[in-house]
Design a protein that fits this description.
The protein is an alpha+beta fold and 366 residues long. It contains 7 helices and 17 strands. The chain has helices at 5-13, 152-155, 181-189, 217-220, 267-284, 300-316, 345-364, and strands at 22-24, 31-33, 36-38, 44-46, 52-58, 61-68, 76-82, 85-92, 98-103, 110-117, 126-131, 134-136, 145-150, 192-197, 243-247, 289-293, 327-329. Helix 5 (267-284) crosses helix 6 (300-316).
Length: 366
């Protein structure tokens, strides 16, 4: 049942009851995954890319109640997966709560609906405020886990112009996190995943900012909402992945827009920030295997410098006997086919196919 309006209003005023990356509600009817903030009455704010809420139900149809929250400045998108099949994106306009009907075509008795946030944390949260479905219990099997830390490429940003062409709409109209390389390969090799990614972000500077105004990943990561807003809850590091994959550097190497100040790439700052970032990750995930990657979008002389920087990061931990050795994975160079020079859904699939065997082998060796 939908919560009463007064309960919904109260829930907005509450501090997060729990913010975790994989959990069931008390009645074991909702499964929450990713960077989410749980509120009262089984409401949850989907924050990060590909964060999700799932439930099982009986009957031929149900409705879900969703809202674009926070500053009400943006509409958002979620992807729906019904009984394991992707059925498309729905747009959640800014403003009031909206009801979305979901119809069932199969004859099976019980169904599962999975709702994945398609847009990023900076677009604002998506409030899941209930369903009319006749709920049954839901459970999840314990699987190996991978966290993907990165930028727009990792987020699947600007990858899908199927509904709105690339030359129309806004940047986030073309996001499709469900088909980003991380979620795609995770489904293929049977692992759970967490996405911690932000478009334009870098390790020591961003796409068009010298770390003067915008937050860089080492500063954003410990915030549940991936911002520098101290009023938001902290990330609780509850996911505890077996592998953390870090793909950051495309924006550090970027030349910017040519209008804003852009200094030459500083390898010392990049390497230093990377090392300190990994130390922070180790502090909270002492048994994790860390894999650092290049970018399929950075080639030529920049690509050579990039690889040299990654080797320096790896070598900085060569004498560390308390953690698993840092590993490097190199994506093949790519000519992207998505919007604004980004990989499209097909390109993301190529990246997933390249990376999956490497990660699967790591997990199977444990």
């Amino acid at each position: 049942m939908f919560p009463k309006k007064i309960a919904l209003l109260i829930s907005f005023l509450l501090i997060s009851i729990v913010s975790t990356s994989q959990t069931l509600n008390s009645n074991k009817t909702f499964l929450y995954q990713g960077r989410v903030e749980k509120l009262q009455n089984d409401n949850v704010i989907l924050i990060g890319t590909a964060s999700s809420v799932s439930f099982n139900f009986t009957g031929k149809e149900c409705s879900i109640l969703l809202q674009s929250v926070d500053a009400y400045e943006h509409h958002n998108y979620v992807s729906l997966v019904l009984d394991g099949k992707y059925i498309g994106k729905i747009r959640i306009e800014k403003g009031a709560l909206q009801t979305f009907p979901v119809k069932v075509t199969s004859n099976q008795k019980e169904h599962r609906l999975e709702i994945y946030k398609n847009t990023e944390a900076h677009t604002g949260g998506v409030l899941f405020a209930g369903t009319t479905a006749k709920l049954t219990s839901i459970s999840f099997k314990k699987k190996k886990k991978i966290e993907f830390i990165g930028d727009s490429i990792t987020c699947g940003a600007a990858s899908d112009g199927s509904d709105i062409p690339c030359d129309k709409g806004e940047y986030y109209d073309h996001h499709n996190s469900y088909y980003a390389y991380g979620p795609t390969l995770s489904r293929a090799i049977g692992v759970d995943y967490l996405m911690s990614c932000v478009s334009g972000i870098g390790m020591y500077r961003n796409w068009n900012d010298e770390n003067k105004e915008e937050v860089i990943m080492p500063d954003a990561y410990p915030n549940l909402y991936l911002t520098k807003d101290n009023s938001k809850p902290k990330y609780d590091f509850a996911f505890q992945p077996d592998i953390i994959s870090i793909a950051l550097g495309t924006n550090d190497f970027s030349g910017g827009d040519g209008k804003k100040e852009r200094l030459p790439f500083n390898p010392e700052k990049y390497v230093s920030n990377y090392i300190n970032f990994i130390k922070m990750l180790y502090k909270h995930n002492p048994n994790v295997q860390i894999v650092i990657t290049n970018s399929p979008m950075v080639g030529g002389e920049k690509g050579v410098v990039f690889e040299d920087c990654l080797n320096k990061v790896k070598n900085a931990f060569a004498d560390d006997k308390t953690h698993k050795p840092i590993l490097i994975f190199k994506f093949k160079p790519m000519t992207p086919h998505g919007c604004l020079g980004h990989p499209d859904v097909a390109d993301q699939k190529v990246m997933a196919n390249e990376y999956a065997p490497f990660l699967k082998k790591l997990l199977n060796e444990k």
